Amino acid sequence: MPHLSVSTNPQSKYCPVWLICVILSLSVVHTHASDVLRVPQQVTLSTNFKEQQLSISWLGGAATTFDIIILRTELNITVFYGTVSVPLDQVSGLQRWNWTSAEPLECTSLSVKVRSRDGQETSEWSNTQNLQGSDLPSNEQSQIYPMNRVVPVGANTTFCCIVKEGQEFGYIKYGNAVVNTTRLSRRSYATTVVNQGPSHQSGANVVCFDSLTTLIVGAVVFVGYPPLLRDFVCETHDLTSAVCRWNVRDPKLYGRRRTKYTLNMRNCLDEYEHVPQKKCIVQQWEGNWTLLAVNPLGQYRLTDSAELSHRVYPVAPTKLRVDAHAWNATVHWQWKYSSYFTLGLVCQVELTCHGIIKNFTVSGVGLQSALLSKLQPNEDYGVRVRCGAQQNFWKWGNWSQPLYFKTKTFVPDPPDLWMWINEDNTGQVVWKVPLNRQSHGQIIGYEVTVWSREENVQHTHTFPPDAAAAAIDFTQIVTSSNDTKVTATVIAKNNEGSSQPASMVFRLTETHTVAVSRTVYENSGFRLSWQSDANTTSDYVVEWHDSACSRNCPVEWIKVLTGITNVTVDSPNFQPGVRYTFSLYSFSSEGRQLLQRWQGFVQELVPSSSVLLSASQQDTDVVLTWSSIPQVNHRGFLLGFNVYNSSGSELKLIANLTDKEIRSYTVKGLSEGTHKFTVKAYTSAGEDSGATASITLEPYIDWLIFELLTSLGVTALFFIIVTFFCYKKRKWVKRAFYPDIPEPKLPGDWSRTQGPLDVKPSSHSIIQIVEKSDQDSSKEMLVVIPEEDEDEEEHGMGDEPVDTDEPASLRYYNQVIDERPIRPRYPDSSTSSASSLDSGRTDVTYTGIQTSGSSLVFQLHPAGSSEDQQPPIDVIDSCSGGGGYRPQCNNAHVASHELFNEPQAYASGGYKPQSSWHLDSPTEAGEVGGLAPSLGSPTSVASTQFLLPDGERHEEEKQASSSASTWFTNLLSSSKP
Amino acid sequence: MAHRRSRHISVTEPSRTTMTRTTAIAEQLHYECCVLLELYKKKESFTTDVLVADGRLVTVPPPSSQLDTTDKLWRLHSALLQCSSLLEIAIIKEEEELGGGKTGDYESQRKTVKERLSFLLVSMGELRKAVDGSVSLTPTLEGLKLDGPTALFELKLWIYRIFEELDYWTKMVISTLQGLSSVLAKERARTTRMRSTRNARR
């Protein structure tokens, strides 16, 4: 600080001053620095328990930034530590800072310290200031905070429970739920309930329990909404006072916490705190209104302003009274306020009759009555009235209480008259019983008059009130005149008098024939339309009735005014499935005239009955015929018939007949057997249940005969062709099938005499085939019979030597073959021969094997049947060695032996028609040898048994072939010149 | 009450009828009290751990076998009268603090109980009159703490205790009157026998 140096120059007299200034300035700076970081003094605490707010004030000098620490005294837990900027309160010279505690301040004691801060520099902490909680030992009782708190919906609230000294804390329940808790001090425990929902009317309970689940203490918290209002409006009923109304949202706060309302600073009594519509009455119309709603959670303000004449909301008229007449009435009422007498009013009169509402509007100053016109006599009405201001209409007032009255009676209207005439000129005058609006009172009777000019006599009859028809007989009138006009008149009567007469003129010679067309029922009824007749100036009548009815029908009708050419007819009497006939008449003073006729159904149904069905056979066809269904059973327009074949399990449609007049149908191409047919009539609604007929088809005789003749013709033709062919080719056939056998050279005419012809055939020609026809049993046949059989010789002679190489002599007979059953022809050979049985065909006689054949029937030599006898082996050799056709081979014994003992050899033998038979048993085989001697006798045995060996069908076929070849042979032989 | 004990008790036929009617009303009230208690517990979400017995609100002389019928009836009448006073105050305070005007099941049942209690009190008065001849000694309400607690939770518990108190004393009325009926029946039978014996001796 060179400038602080002392100088002796003239200027030096200023140096002490300068120095003092420097010193003073340094002193000021130092003083300022020590003043900024001064320790806060006079720290004081003040509380707002309801808001849980702690206000801390202190003397902090010039500092504006302070550190504040708040601790829970008992457990020394910091609940707040922070640096805050607190401006100096110029008035008090104190710094003040508010802190809101999460817990109620009563929960536990708090300690507060403050220090000044200047950047990083801080002063010392102030002295600790304590806020005493309610958990001090001196306060021994159990407590809970906050009590009776009101909080908004969605708030978080911390509750603390201070247990009694010496008591052990257990848990806290909010409502019925146990909640988590935090220990604040030795006796204090807290819990925080977050996002609280609206509580019910008596609030939500917060209850503390000790460790023994014994209730310690409880509190109630109310969770609701601040006020919210709308639709605030003020009106006047009496033209003096104001009635202000508004709607509120339910704040969920009731009782002591309910919302309180003031209107223009005057309290409004809210008697019904649960009702959302509120009202408040101000005795004088003020023009401007301010509504203030206040509850513990807030307040809401609404305003309204209007002139009185613009807010007239009339009260309901009172003391209604009616002066009723037959056709009109006057309704009177009174006003509650005399101020209405000078008020221009518009009023609505609502008239109700049988649920039908009519409104009349009348207006006038101080209106107190209204005329109701166009009423019906003897009718019940209800009336009520409401009004509004005619000028500056605001809204309709309230309806008055309804008043019910009845108009007076009056003479009836003329009845609605109609006429039904039967074909026999009887009929009835019909009329509609008047409705109440037509009778105008209780009907006491009707007077019906019938009059004709020709007769010139009025026939008048009186009928009771429930009558609606009067039978009439025009038979006598008709006989006197061909074209009689009759006038019918009906008068209805009640206590007020008689109606005007209802008259109708009609002719007894009305025509009833007119083309009938169809009409369809639509949603609202049958729509009928017709061509307008320019010449007709009369009204129309549409009449309808059940088409099935023909005499004194219950008829309905409506009148149609002139010029109208269509009408929709509906009736509560319409029934589905019933055909209705609608007739359009024009009527005038000259009578009525039938113009048009329709028929239709409200709803078509399936026919209620079926046809009567019958079936008959016609050649190979079946003709179905059925009757018609009675029209009353049609229940719809018949569209046709469906014909089904119902022979199987399902109906098979075979014809759809769209011609409803058709009554028969022919089913063709049927096979023999039983057939069932079903015929169903159908309408647009579907088919009826159907009628079924059954028929069994017999064979067609003509066709049978034709078939038989045809087959016979074909067969005959075939045989002719074959015969012709064989005849033409007989040489070839003979050469191929039957080569020539040398004829025996015998003297004389051997063929004419009956006697044996001994020949010496070769050893392989011992069998001769004889063909015999049934139809020609007398035909002479050449039978070849072996003179001696080898076996016979062997077995029959016993000890005689056998010479198999010697050909046996054959004896031929041109005898007649007996067609009778097997029988002996000769005593010797009767047992070894049998006749061929009649088969209707060609018989073949195997003479070469007759011995065995006869053994089946007779037994002449019992000794020869010994089992010891064996067939000669060498005979087998003579015909063995291969198959093929060997008609000359006599191996009967071999065959029989082989069939019995060596079936394998037989099977490999090939076709052996002459040796294919076999014996039935070994015993029988043994008999063969015993019968052998008879072979030499002139015996012929015919037997079919040999052609059908047991169990060998193919052999049977071979035998047949053999028979055919024999036949050919005979044919060729007989045909040989 | 010593002077009342010395009185002669004569049970007439009308008193038996009144006793029967009073018993019937008490039984009906008992049932309605049970319903009211259930509705209140449901309304306040009170569970069993909340509802603990905490002494009687009604103060009457202790029961004793030395009490005669008149004193027994007086005791019951006094208790019911206190219950009625407590109930009225409970209703007023409940509506004042917690709101009224609602017409729920609880409010309807509370109204029913209040009216039934009035009938029972009237009937008890008639019974006492029939038995004792007069009801000059009307039970007093002295000593009854009619100002409920200020804390709402305590108020709720207090209201519940009033309902319980009413239920308790209704049961006491029923049991006492039933006991009296049997005693009176025995006395009547004994009197009848004595008269028969006396008439026979004559």
UniProtKB/TrEMBL annotation, chain A:
Alphabetized CDD domains for the sequence: FN3
InterPro entries: FN3_dom, FN3_sf, Ig-like_fold, LIF-R-like_Ig-like, LIFR_D2, Type1_Cytokine_Rcpt_Type2
Acidic residues bias (residue ranges): 788-806
Record field: compositional bias (Polar residues): 122-139, 936-946, 960-977
Membrane topology: Single-pass type I membrane protein
Entry keywords, A to Z: Glycoprotein, Membrane, Receptor, Repeat, Signal, Transmembrane, Transmembrane helix
Domain called Fibronectin type-III: residue spans: 316-410, 411-514
Listed transmembrane segments: 703-727
Signal peptide positions on this chain: 1-33
Stored SUPFAM superfamilies: Fibronectin type III
GO cellular component terms given for this protein: plasma membrane
Highest taxon of the lineage: Eukaryota
UniProt-annotated location(s): Membrane
Chain intervals with Low complexity compositional bias: 829-839
Region (Disordered): 118-139, 788-808, 820-846, 906-977
Pfam families: LIF-R_Ig-like (PF21177), LIFR_D2 (PF17971), LIFR_D4 (PF25552)
PROSITE patterns, sorted: FN3
Regions of compositional bias (Basic and acidic residues) in chain numbering: 950-959
Family: Belongs to the type I cytokine receptor family. Type 2 subfamily.
Official protein name in the record: LIF receptor subunit alpha a
Organism field: Cynoglossus semilaevis
Taxonomic lineage: Eukaryota, Metazoa, Chordata, Craniata, Vertebrata
Automatic annotation (TrEMBL), chain B:
Single Gene Ontology BP annotation: ciliary neurotrophic factor-mediated signaling pathway
Gene Ontology molecular function terms on file: ciliary neurotrophic factor receptor binding
InterPro entries: 4_helix_cytokine-like_core, Ciliary_neurotrophic_fac_CNTF
Entry superkingdom: Eukaryota
Name used for this protein in its record: Ciliary neurotrophic factor
Organismal lineage: Eukaryota, Metazoa, Chordata, Craniata, Vertebrata
